[in-house]
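Q: what sequence does this backbone want?
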């Protein structure tokens, strides 16, 4: 399953990318994120591996993030592993007119091996897109407050 999203942010690409790369600000736009801990490599660099811990109500989730390509301020690509699914996320940051930034993302789920997420992906694929769009909307709101 693959989907894309985009949003225009009323901030310069420099400010948008600076915020995107700031791990201390992740909790401000990624609902449920409790912490992110570097486990190997250099933070933000290609090959860096971090654990991300989320909590939504009674549900807890651990993701392992591996940065595949950090070419900021232009692009960012990472691989996310969960015990039940894997996905890649690619992000593009493009300067547009009047000091605005176009933030585009592409998410591809390459493995879903648990029945509930697999059923959700088949029956309600928009749920995955809606979560990604929600985080983009949250990120836009945060960036435009800066």
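A:
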């Amino acid at each position: 399953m693959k989907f894309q999203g985009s949003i225009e942010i009323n901030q310069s690409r420099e400010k948008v990318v600076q915020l995107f790369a700031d791990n201390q600000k992740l909790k401000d736009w990624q609902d449920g994120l409790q912490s992110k801990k570097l486990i190997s490599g250099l933070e933000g660099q290609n090959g860096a591996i971090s654990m991300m811990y989320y909590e939504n109500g009674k549900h807890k989730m651990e993701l392992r993030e591996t940065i595949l390509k950090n070419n900021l301020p232009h692009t960012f690509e990472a691989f996310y592993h969960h015990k039940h699914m894997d996905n890649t996320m690619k992000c593009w940051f493009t300067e547009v007119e009047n000091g605005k930034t176009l933030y585009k993302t592409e998410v591809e789920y390459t493995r879903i091996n648990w029945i509930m997420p697999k059923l959700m992906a088949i029956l309600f694929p928009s749920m995955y897109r809606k979560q990604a769009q929600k985080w983009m909307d949250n990120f836009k709101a945060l960036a435009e407050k800066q």
